[in-house]
Specification:
This protein has eight helices and seven strands; from the N terminus they run βαβαβαβαβαβαααβ. By secondary structure, it is an alpha/beta fold. The protein has one domain (17-247): NAD(P)-binding Rossmann-like Domain (Rossmann fold). α1 (26-37) crosses α8 and α4 runs parallel beside α5. The radius of gyration is 18 Å and the shape is globular.
């Protein structure tokens, strides 16, 4: 008698459309490349359209499907209109975010507002906009926000940043509860410190770098490539039973 073996789910994304916000550099760029190479048609979105066009050209040269769209995630109304006109998207990967670090006693209201407008408000309504398109089309989907290990711990000079990332985890869980019956999954990826333009000032501070290297149990900072496989996994059918979750890619930072 032949044994019946379980079928391994596919990590391929052929025939699916992915919107990647914050795709012009860093983690967003890396995840866009990963999704495109896995077969998705990727719409690259950010404020810097020239950088997006260059990335789209490079992906198409590899035989991938990609186009570019100018988007400022903090502009909620314009973003919703863009998503409505260009969608529906089967996959959202939102890597748009910023940080303004300072001791909590020195936080300025203007810095608080600009960080929360993008990291929380913008992220919330971008997820809503993509989900609205999926609901209208009667389609399932996978929505992914790049959060942070700082959504699960505190950090020096990171009161505002930690607050925004903890908020992202909260709305992700609430949306997962509301949208699950429609087959729409929503999760976060929570990286440790990754070497990008955004984190360069931190790594250039010897005291901060020593703190980072001491806390990461694997003994090195993260790289963009460390996030690419996780993005494909969460977007694919291999993660069909995962929603409302946070995937920590932190080198053991939060293991303590």
């Amino acid at each position: 008698m032949t044994m019946s073996l379980p079928k391994t789910p596919s990590f391929r994304l052929d025939g699916r459309r992915a919107l990647v916000a914050g795709a012009s550099s860093g983690i967003g760029l890396g995840c866009a490349v990963a999704l495109a190479r896995a077969g998705a048609h990727v719409t690259l979105a950010a404020r810097r359209i020239e950088a997006l066009q260059a990335l789209a050209d490079a992906l198409r040269a590899e035989g991938c499907e990609a186009d570019a769209m100018a988007m400022d995630v903090a502009d909620v109304e314009a973003t919703a209109a863009s998503v409505a006109s260009a969608g529906p998207f089967d996959i959202l990967l939102n890597s748009a975010g910023l940080a303004r670090h300072s001791p909590a006693l020195e936080t300025r209201e203007a810095d608080y507002d600009i960080v929360t407008d993008l990291n929380v408000k913008g992220a919330y309504f971008l997820a809503q906009a993509v989900a609205k398109g999926l609901f209208a089309a009667g389609k399932p989907g996978s929505l992914i926000t790049i959060s942070s290990q700082m959504a699960h711990v505190g950090g020096i000079d990171r009161g505002v940043y930690c607050a925004t990332k903890h908020a992202v985890e909260g709305f992700t869980k609430a949306m997962a509860i509301e949208w699950g019956k429609a087959g729409i999954r929503i999760n976060t990826i929570c990286p440790t410190f990754v070497l990008t333009d955004l984190t360069r000032p931190t790594f250039e501070n010897p005291e901060r770098r020593a703190w980072i290297e001491d806390k990461i149990k694997l003994g090195r900072a993260g790289e963009v490539e460390d996030l690419m496989g996780v993005a494909v996994f969460l977007a694919s059918d291999a993660a069909a039973m995962i929603t409302g979750s946070a995937i920590l890619v932190d080198g053991g930072w939060t293991a303590e």
